[in-house]
Backbone:
């Protein structure tokens, strides 16, 4: 087993996993900046993915880290109703990690890059105490589509999600309890936490519907993210019991002593798409998009209810209570 | 003294220091992505700025950290012969730092953003063991200018720099020895290390000269960066004695027992501009650009000499020797 001994070793590894030739890229890695061909409007997002904050090496294999670090950023682009175009990477690397481990991390990241056709156009690298990744991803409108923002909902709109809310939370709890041994009993939930499956086709289809008022990436749980999605002064009446919650989500909710709907609504790291549209359109869309589920309606007063009961909460890295 | 207790507190602080209204920004912070109006081609760069790797809190005031973290990225854009357009920020924050300290960091970063007219369009935030920043900055060609790449030099071209090479290295040594007390004896050198002055006007002027073959941001010292700047198969004969090295650089070189030219060429964190052009043009440019200094010529064989002596070296975060 050997270690990567220089920046050059890292760059060689990156060169093997990330081809640079791409219609979007005029000049790739190796200069002060990348040079990119751009559409008239782009969307851009950046996310941290840090050891012991966002993942644990105890149960994340390096491939999982590589995959998820890119997927969570791509999910933000899909949540704008947009197609991802490219990404850059900042990496901190403890010097005691073997070369093979990095090889596997970049292989995982390369899988997600290839799946979405994304060039890695540049980055920065430093020794550091923990494995840390900061990715920036940008995208363009889907052909024939338009960017979908938050804050455009209207009272009476139906709210919907695409993606299994609560499943990643079930996976996190299982992994925290038993590490990768939990994968035997909770294969779907652990897999979703280790790297969510994204919904580019749904993003594309929804971006082309002018009556879809907005889209959003659900990453902190519906309870926290729905209020961020609504136009000012609005609230929502949620009811997700009809969403065919995954059996592993139901099992973990019961083990936690929480109603499954509440467990799923608190969620976190779902990386589902949340959208709003007139009710008849949502009914029609659910026929065309398997996995789309109506989760309630927009109300004309602030406040969130779940099955009629007021709902609070959410996750904040800095809250001390 | 109080601490920032939530992400909201950070976002409020950021809102105070970074206005969002900007012709480049369609939609700023607060959605899954920012939406940006873009020219046909952009350049993009990303850099880490990490506690105890790139700065020490022992002698960097929070304003310095804020200023330098953005300046080093802007420098990469200027090094492409480009005008910066906007930036995003990932931040890791120990939870035991006072709110006032963050206020000062964002005030420093806001100064540099205002100086270059840059909107902060988005970011991410996490608790972390050390203060860590990962910034992404992008830019567009200066009006009437063109991007300037590496690797376009021709044998016989004159090489030049804009910026005081070696000065930041002198400042780093002084700060490492005596902390901020070193600012009394080495005011210019310590100031340059704490936050380099950039050269946007020189970048603009040079980007408009078709005969300027390329530009580059010198961040690892001339000895390491000149070979990266040259076209394959080329070398350079450097002679920087004529560059009026700063008296503080000369003093620190002598204290280190190194010829000042060598000390300056090894440099590091100069954030100077390095360029190449035909000799007559360089003579003309040095009249128009105070601070521009011819530092040698491109040769048709690999290898670097300084005042006739072969030169190696450079800084690599991972090299163990």
Residues:
């Amino acid at each position: 087993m050997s270690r990567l001994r220089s920046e050059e070793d890292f760059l060689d590894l990156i060169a093997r996993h990330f081809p640079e030739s791409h219609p979007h890229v005029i000049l790739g890695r190796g200069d002060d900046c990348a040079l990119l061909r751009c559409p008239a409007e782009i969307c851009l997002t950046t996310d941290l993915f840090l050891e012991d904050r966002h993942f644990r090496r105890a149960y994340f294999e390096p491939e999982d880290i590589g995959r998820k670090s890119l997927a969570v950023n791509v999910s933000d682009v899909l949540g704008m109703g947009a197609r991802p175009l490219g990404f850059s990477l900042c990496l901190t690397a403890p010097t005691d990690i073997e070369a093979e481990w990095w090889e596997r991390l970049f292989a995982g990241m390369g899988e997600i890059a290839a799946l979405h056709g994304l060039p890695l156009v540049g980055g920065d690298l430093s020794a550091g105490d923990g494995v840390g990744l900061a990715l920036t991803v940008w995208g363009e409108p889907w052909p024939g589509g338009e960017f979908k923002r938050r804050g455009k909902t209207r009272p009476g709109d139906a709210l919907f999600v695409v993606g299994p809310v609560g499943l990643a939370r079930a996976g996190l709890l299982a992994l925290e309890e038993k590490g990768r041994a939990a994968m035997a009993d909770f294969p779907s939930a652990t897999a979703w936490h280790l790297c969510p499956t994204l919904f580019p086709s749904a993003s594309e289809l929804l971006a082309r519907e002018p009556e879809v008022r907005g889209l959003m990436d659900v990453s902190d749980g519906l309870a926290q993210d729905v209020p961020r999605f609504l136009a000012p002064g609005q609230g929502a009446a949620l009811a997700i019991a009809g969403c065919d919650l995954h059996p592993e989500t139901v099992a973990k909710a019961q083990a936690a002593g929480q109603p499954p709907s509440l467990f799923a609504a608190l969620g976190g790291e779902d990386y589902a798409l949340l959208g709003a549209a007139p009710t008849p359109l949502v009914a029609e869309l659910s026929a065309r998009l398997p996995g789309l589920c109506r989760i309630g309606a927009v109300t004309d007063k602030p406040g969130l209810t779940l099955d009629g009961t007021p709902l609070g909460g959410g996750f904040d890295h800095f809250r001390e209570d």
